[in-house]
């Protein structure tokens, strides 16, 4: 069975965005891009909420074509064009999208059907609203977090409306010179 891994940048106090959705506090550099790119290159499916999907669609399809495109822009743009996209949305029309599946209702049933198909892990990128929806249905199998050395004090929390205690197992960590720490957790089924 495929696993859904939530991939997020998070503040030390647990927020994934500021009160107005600000993400200008996220620390990212080429070392982190290269590290993330290694794992993403082994993934064939991305999941997004509609807002994050719109942001991705507005940038990644043509990012590699820009004259000043970075190595990361080129590599991620190429990956993005090949990856299957799953979008949680009540407003998008699947017929308009390329290589994408829209889930607008019966989230648990539809996602469990996808998890039972062949393929790699499914990375849930960014998307706090989608993460919260999947959390309520117990559909997330792990967390790939990049903890930024900042306290926001308020904003959009990573974890909201959790129904029950959930044990996690730390798989690995990595500290980056810029102060960001990567944490990989999976559900602890023991």
Short description:
The protein has 190 residues and is of the alpha/beta class. α1 (30-40) packs parallel to α3 (71-82) and α2 crosses α3. The longest helix has 14 residues, at 50-63.
Which key phrases capture this entry?
190 residues, Dihydrofolate Reductase, subunit A, eight-stranded mixed sheet, two-stranded antiparallel ribbon, 10 strands
Tell me roughly what share of residues is in helical segments.
Answer: 25-40%
What is the CATH T-level topology? Answer: Dihydrofolate Reductase, subunit A
Q: Compute the separation of the termini in Å.
A: 18 Å
CATH C-level class is Alpha Beta
Q: What is the assigned CATH homologous superfamily? A: Dihydrofolate Reductase, subunit A
Protein name: Dihydrofolate reductase family protein
Domain Bacterial bifunctional deaminase-reductase C-terminal: 2-180
Pfam families: RibD_C
Organism: Flavobacterium flavipallidum
Structure description:
This is Dihydrofolate reductase family protein. Residues 2-180 form the Bacterial bifunctional deaminase-reductase C-terminal domain. It holds the Pfam family RibD_C. InterPro entries: DHFR-like_dom_sf (IPR024072), RibDG_C (IPR002734), Riboflavin_Biosynth_HTPR (IPR050765). The chain has helices at residues 30-40, 50-63, 71-82, 107-115, 128-136; strands at 4-11, 15-17, 45-49, 84-88, 100-103, 122-125, 142-148, 156-157, 168-175, 181-187. By secondary structure, the chain is of the alpha/beta class. It has a single domain, classed as 3-Layer(aba) Sandwich (Dihydrofolate Reductase, subunit A), CATH 3.40.430. The strands form two sheets. It has an eight-stranded mixed β-sheet with strand order 5-4-3-6-1-7-10-9, sandwiched between helices. It has a two-stranded antiparallel ribbon with strand order 2-8. Helix 1 packs parallel to helix 3 and helix 2 packs across helix 3 (71-82). The chain is globular and about 45 Å long. 26% of the residues are buried. The mean pLDDT is 92.
